[in-house]
Write a structure and sequence with these properties.
globular; alpha+beta; 4-stranded antiparallel β-sheet; two-stranded antiparallel sheet; Alpha-Beta Plaits; 9 helices
Length: 217
């Protein structure tokens, strides 16, 4: 969902339009989970090549590449169980089932893609005023058409968070602001780019401190 926030900040969409899109996206993804039940599982500290082989054998998909040593897979529940069995047999030590209502960012979301695409027809997309990095391709989104295609493909394609941060780091980004409660993304960024500076904005006090920094003594 962070990419939707970024699109609002880049003036691609109004905040109200972003909220309507996110609400409908959530409804449709939940609906897809009812039509084609599935779930997700985090796989920690397991070789990616071996995991790809496990996924191919079990019939599941890699859905999020979050950081070195942290990958999420999606699929039907019985196939996820098979993947877990195969991964453990290949040396995986930590598998974490996620409490979600569907196999997000996988082909099990395809039944609702046409409906979401039609829903987007009622919105006006603008070219971004500042670069927005795609979580699917880990490249900048530059025009209205590519942004709309991105939002649709997110439903069924793997989220490339690690590659997105690596792209930004290669292109001179050294400071990252995590807006919202928690520090999950900051932790992932540090694993991807250890020299990065991460700043958490989780409340009004943090906003005040950011806007009115204390002068150096």
């Amino acid at each position: 969902l962070g990419e939707y926030t970024a699109l609002a900040a880049a003036d691609v969409l109004d905040v109200g339009d972003v909220l309507r899109l996110v609400r409908e996206r959530g409804r449709l993804m939940y609906e897809a989970g009812l039509r084609r039940p599935g779930s997700m599982m985090a796989v920690i500290a397991f070789n990616r090549t071996h995991l790809q082989q496990v996924c191919a054998q079990a019939g599941v998909e890699i859905s999020n590449i979050n950081a070195p040593g942290q990958i999420v897979i999606s699929g039907a529940i019985d196939k996820l169980d098979k993947a877990a069995e195969l991964a453990r047999a290949s040396g995986a030590r930590r598998l974490i089932p996620l409490n979600v209502s569907g196999a997000f960012h996988s082909t099990l979301m395809e039944p609702v893609m046409d409906e979401f695409n039609a829903f987007m027809d009622s919105f006006t997309f603008r070219a971004p005023r500042i670069p927005v990095v795609s979580n699917v391709t880990a490249q900048p989104l530059t025009d209205e058409r590519s942004i709309r295609e991105e939002l649709l493909s997110q439903l069924r394609r793997c989220i490339q968070w690690q590659a997105s941060v690596e792209y930004m780091s290669r292109n001179g980004i050294t400071t990252y602001y995590e807006i919202g409660p928690g520090t999950v993304l900051s932790g992932l960024i540090k694993r991807i780019s250890p020299d990065a500076v991460t700043i958490n904005i989780s409340g009004t006090d943090d906003i005040d401190a950011l806007m009115n920094p204390t002068p150096a003594q």
